[in-house]
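== Protein entry: sequence and backbone fold ==
=== Local backbone shapes as whole numbers ===
==== Amino acids and backbone structure tokens ====
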Amino acid sequence: MQKKSFHIGGSIEEATQGKVDLQATPIIREAFLLTNKTLVAFVPAVLCYVLVQLVLVGGFVEVKTGNALSQLTELVAGGELTSELMHTLMIGGQFADVLSAPLFLALSLMAVNHSVGLPTRIKQIMGVIPNLMLMSVLVMMFILALQASAATLFFPLGLFMTMALGNTLLLASDKRLPLLKAVQVSVVATVRHLGPITLVYGVIMALFFMSVMSFGIGLIWALPFYFNAKAVIYRTLFGLTLKVASEASETDTPNNAKTVVFDA
């Protein structure tokens, strides 16, 4: 077995120095095409993620109020959203984001595979997740704390931090950067390429808004687009290393078995 590796995209140094040619339109176009191409493979994972989120949020509301089902049913039926319930739902959403961080990372790795033309291998990705489970939870907890603190000070700053910290989890899992270093690299790279990244996130927010207007049905397409767009941004900015494993033989022919693997 012979193994060779090759690099696709930018690098941490280029991204933090603003030397990567990042353009919004090609990213949106590629994410759109990737989403259409891989939607069937993505939908089961997305539905699983959404279901876990709903269960965790519902469980949190039940613990806090003692009558989650009746309150949520009344809300869906057009009842008034009280400030107390809104606060509970917001805290519950953050609670769910932290506990479902390993699933979020799994979806991110699936999208990274898509961004370099690799098929979705659930078994391979889920094999990586147990080793990254604790790390993903801690990173997500830190990210949410920073976002909440920024939003409390100035709401637009919270939106900026959402974008600026968007690559932190992949930097920590793929590049093996320490948490604070991953945060620093993600923020600096975002500031260096703020224009195109803002445009991409603007499209993502518009898709999420339309999904809400369609009673959440649009999330089936919007969530895969979100993960694919983030993966394309990550690949373009920081690059990905792929390993090609081929069966050694005396004659190097195209018929030799080859396997391409994303090195995470």
Notes: The chain is about 70% helix and 5% strand. The CA atoms of residues 207 and 222 lie 6 Å apart. Confidence is low (pLDDT under 50) at residues 248-259.
